[in-house]
Specification:
binds magnesium ion; alpha/beta; binds threonylcarbamoyladenylate
């Protein structure tokens, strides 16, 4: 097993050095990896994902010691965050070093950097010896893959290699915090919470004010991270009220429910249980959405989750997966 893995890593590194695409597991979701310093390779990433060029990519590093090679103006607060959360599901945005490709940053003066935690990702970075761009390994606006078979569905045939590292441990994309401003701001919520970040830097950290005219906010399309099946977000009371009287043109449908409350059995309505804790829910969400998306359903209904801080990242994703109410 170990030997096979080592051969795979060598082969993967050879592919990356030649400008190829290697999908690798991270603890958050699978990433579509390519040499961050090779413009042809980076262009292939955008093409494989059908992603517009104005959406910048995250550069993945082996360790904090590589930060200086990519970022300028690294503050003490950023170093504290790196020490506390790397390797792990945190991405930090910095002013970029001049060599960082405009293609990677979408012509912005900043670059997003992260050190992932999955051992295969770290072996790959160690073997390659330099930064790798790795957007989530899905086609643009689709759900991020959390298993190698989901990657196969999304990008099979468009990439040179897929490294299988089992199901993703976190299940949602990293928290993105912009460290290039006076006050750090969270651009994308993730399982590392605003509170955890605030505790490390020693001052309150806020979420991006959506009214501010800021460039390239992750997930700013009205529908993002969405299944192909129409998806609605309803709270438990609304589900309970409507379960017996859904229009027949909405059937069959699936209700993704995390509360252990009982729902009546109704023809054409399937209740799919999700874990009732935020970590377990996050881990299962994308896999479950993907499975239900393949069931020829007319609707997926997601039971809304609490509006509390510990559910913030999950709620961000389920709101984005759903149609506006
Ligand atoms: O967990 C993750 O972050 C995963 C794994 C594979 O590492 N990657 C990921 O990449 O989610 P992607 O490309 O799907 O999402 C990266 C987000 C994009 O929405 C992009 O807008 C934002 O990061 N981003 C990248 N560079 C940025 C920058 N310089 N300023 C602001 N946002 C940036
Ligand atoms: Mg993505």
């Amino acid at each position: 097993m170990l030997t096979t893995m080592r051969i795979d890593i060598n082969q993967a590194v050879t592919i990356l050095r030649a400008g190829g695409l290697v999908v690798f597991p991270t603890e958050t979701v699978y990433g579509l990896g390519a040499d961050a310093s090779n413009p042809t390779a980076v262009r292939r990433v955008f093409e494989a994902k059908e992603r517009p060029y104005n959406h910048p990519l995250i550069v993945h590093l082996l360790e904090s010691a590589w930060l200086e090679d990519w970022a300028l103006d690294i503050t003490d607060e950023a170093r504290k965050l790196a020490k506390a959360f790397w390797p792990g599901p945190l991405t930090m945005v910095f002013n970029k070093q001049s060599h960082v490709l405009d293609l990677v940053t979408a012509d912005q003066p900043t670059v997003a950097l992260r050190v992932p935690r999955h051992p295969l990702a770290l072996s790959l970075l160690n073997g390659f010896g330099d930064g790798l761009v790795a957007p989530s390994a899905n086609r643009f606006t689709r759900i991020s893959p959390t298993t190698a078979s989901a990657v196969q569905q999304e990008l099979g045939g468009r990439v040179d290699m897929i490294l299988d590292g089992g199901p993703s441990e976190v299940g949602l994309e990293s928290t993105i915090v912009d460290m290039s401003r006076e006050l750090p701001v969270i651009l994308r919520p993730g399982m590392i919470s605003a509170k955890a970040i605030s505790e490390v830097v020693g001052r309150p950290i806020s979420y991006l004010n959506q009214d501010q005219p800021v460039v390239r906010v992750p997930g700013m399309h009205a529908v993002h991270y969405a299944p192909a099946t129409k998806t609605m977000l309803l709270d438990f009371i609304a589900i309970k009220d409507r379960i017996c009287e859904f229009d027949t043109d909405l059937l069959p449908l699936a209700i993704l429910s995390h509360s252990n409350l009982r729902l009546p059995k109704v023809d054409g309505v399937k209740v799919v249980r999700l874990p009732s804790d935020p970590d377990g829910y996050a881990r299962a969400l994308y896999r479950t959405l993907r499975e239900q998306d393949q069931q020829q359903l007319k609707r997926i209904i997601i039971e809304d989750v609490p509006q509390s801080a510990e559910w913030a990242a999950v709620r961000d994703r389920i709101v984005k997966a759903s149609e506006p109410a």
